[in-house]
Design a protein that fits this description.
258 residues; alpha/beta; six-stranded mixed beta sheet; four-stranded antiparallel beta sheet
């Protein structure tokens, strides 16, 4: 019996060792060059932190990865697919495999937590069975320790709880890659540490690979298997946390003065 594959699957590059490969990526806005010859690899089940100051191009980088922005030059391969060459329908298919945890959680204020989590299941997977929806929603909330919030509104939750719910809404689609945009921004140290622990739990439970965008050195220390330091739009230094901390590179010193 013959098996069929989607148009996206037919475009997959065979034998790819990394789940993300970026080479010579460049992106400018007018005269301002935001990304300048960026290179990085993300390995399977790896937490890769992209560390950099505000305005260094970190968020632009992950937006290029999912074609929310178009690069000026360079190649971007995600799960073996050449992202800039994909059609809109193929991009939608790929994006279902890449979870995006936004800095502001991106919850719908007018919807209960239940409705917030049901929305991607109905829109993206066509699931409308109420029993199935309830099971999947409660499972996702239990994974982040917030099943009791299912019928609350986002306005009733703390910033840290909203972050957890945002992650749960992303995980409910079972992505292969997670992208975290400043996951600890605006949180107190205790809550930040809890979110960092959750990021590690997500990797271990779901076997995801993750890119974590942050300027928070504590987040980088707690969550990273490896770090890429983005300095003025360049992927200047790569290594483990301890390797970067021991580096004599002057551009890294201010990160580790804590």
């Amino acid at each position: 019996m013959e098996t069929t594959s989607s148009p996206l699957e037919a475009k997959k590059t065979l034998g790819v060792a990394n789940v993300v490969e970026i080479r010579n990526l460049q992106k400018s806005f007018g005269e301002r060059k935001v990304l300048n010859n960026v290179n990085l690899d993300l390995r399977a089940q790896e937490n890769l932190v992209v560390l950099g100051r505000s305005g260094s191009g970190k968020s632009v980088l992950i937006k290029c990865m999912v074609a929310l922005l178009k690069p000026d030059e360079g190649t971007i391969k995600v799960l073996g697919y050449n992202v800039p060459s994909l059609s809109p329908s193929e991009l939608n298919e790929l994006r279902l495999q890449v979870g995006f945890s936004f800095q502001g959680s991106a919850l719908y204020d007018s919807m209960t937590i239940r409705k917030n989590l049901e929305f991607p299941l109905m829109r993206n997977l066509g699931i409308y069975d109420t029993v199935k929806l309830n099971e999947m929603v409660l499972t996702a909330l239990e994974e982040v320790g917030l099943a009791h919030t299912v019928d609350q509104l986002p306005s009733e939750l703390s910033g840290g709880m909203k972050k957890r719910i945002g992650i749960a809404r992303t995980l409910i689609l079972k992505p292969k890659i997670m992208l975290y945009d400043e996951p600890t921004a605006g949180l107190d140290p205790v809550t930040s540490s809890e979110i960092n622990d959750l990021i590690l739990q997500v990797r271990d439970r779901y076997h995801t690979a993750s890119i974590i965008i942050t300027h928070d050195i504590s987040c980088a220390h707690q969550t990273s298997d490896r770090i890429v330091a983005l300095i003025e739009g360049e992927s200047k230094v790569q290594g483990t946390f301890d390797e970067l901390k021991a580096s004599n590179d002057k551009d890294l010193k201010h990160f580790f003065n804590y």
